[in-house]
Records
---
Amino acid sequence: MIARGIYKIKDKYFIDFPDPYLKSNSGENRPCYYCYTASDTGLFWMIPLSWRVEKYKRVMEQRREMNKPCDIVHVARLDNGKESAFLIQDMFPVTDEYILGEYLLGNSFFRVTSDALAKTIARKAKTIMTLIRKGIRLQEKQPNVLEIERKLLENKQARYTPPSER
């Protein structure tokens, strides 16, 4: 997996981590997810993408009117010319085993090529992660991503065999 890539997640993830507030799959086809790598754990964090841009523009406008920051969602035009909403507040951790594959546009792997967009998403994702780690709830129906992260890290540790024991 590469950072800035867009991927599909296996249904198995949502079976193994049955949090009712995760943005779940639709037959391993939708939504697709932007890959953000958290340097502190080595896990991949997947940010759901939505094509329902107008809905999230309204959310952002409401937050601005209330003088609240808009780090929870980011709307941007992607390389395919369409706008998409990055649902940063809904990001969740995964490991390679839960990645179904790359999201293809035509026959090409779809990824974010804009450095500016990638930096903006990374900055907002770091802000959201800091708030989540402080125990701040960003929304009423927020998945317990820290519990999922803990379980993924435990599984990762359990599978690791030190070189001296191989």
---
Amino acid sequence: MSSRNTVLSKHQITQKTERIAYEIYENTFEEPIIYIGGIAGNGFLFAERLVQQLKDISSQQVRLFEISISKDKPLKNEIKLSIDESDLTNATCILVDDVINSGRTMLYAVRKLLENELHVLKVATLVNRTHRRFPVHADFVGLNLSTTMKDKIAVDLGKNEAAYLV
């Protein structure tokens, strides 16, 4: 069994979520509407938390949507959005995932979003691994973590909330 080292506690996750929400607001405060797209699973759960924080601190309309993607084989199934894609025309969109590991999932999600004529696309993540195989840049980051290629980050946003190096 692999060992688990805590890299973020529940309290730290709460702090990082609030800070990222403020950073997003600072960068988008002139936009009347922003779209927050969470990658299905923990990415969507993290996106929900960011949306709640944004609604607490701003008067912007914040629209949450889910991006369904196969993380292991992104091209095997169609990547789907839970909103009408035409809503994203000229939109400011923040793409959210809990962890950027290799960058593959994020890259394919970006590709799907770029099928629309967006005004701005930014990326937010709770944990950003600095070793990855694909060129993805996160604009809003809770924690940057240097790891080896064989290290993995696991995030539990449930009862035992924490982020672990496994």
---
Amino acid sequence: MTPKLTDFFAKIRADALKIESETGIPWIFAATQSAHESGCGLSKLTVTANNLFGFTANPAWMAANSPTVKFITRECSPKPPEQIRYWEFEGDVFEKHKTATGGSELQVWRYFRKYETWEASLRDWAAHLATPRYAKALAAAKTGDFEGFAKGLQEGGYATDPRYAVQLVALHSSLEGIA
């Protein structure tokens, strides 16, 4: 394990263990996914907004006047660039590129959730997993099946990157013995 991962896991462990005791989701699952999403806590989104999982600000979050930050993010779509006018609102697509498979890789302006602490971000993540959309991921997590967890996230539409589950499993595999 790299020093960057070691430092990140030391920092997130106590909060992730709280979430594990409350939800049954292994702390290492939260730590692995958040390490991937946040660049081990070093991404601009995490540093600026304590957002460990890349959660965007949905309409309910915005309507509640909850804190947000706006960043450019990378999104993938199976549609070719010429078929994409916008992602969520007019003018939000910053850049488009055609992929080798005929789809698109986009740079998009998006609003993201801002949290007071990493624990708040972890709590929102756990609540997110408790929705029907991620039932498969949550069930797998509660049985300790990381590969099933990652696949459940992918199938539930957690990320637009078609290699998301594969990347999570590879990172988790490199952590054997840490939990």
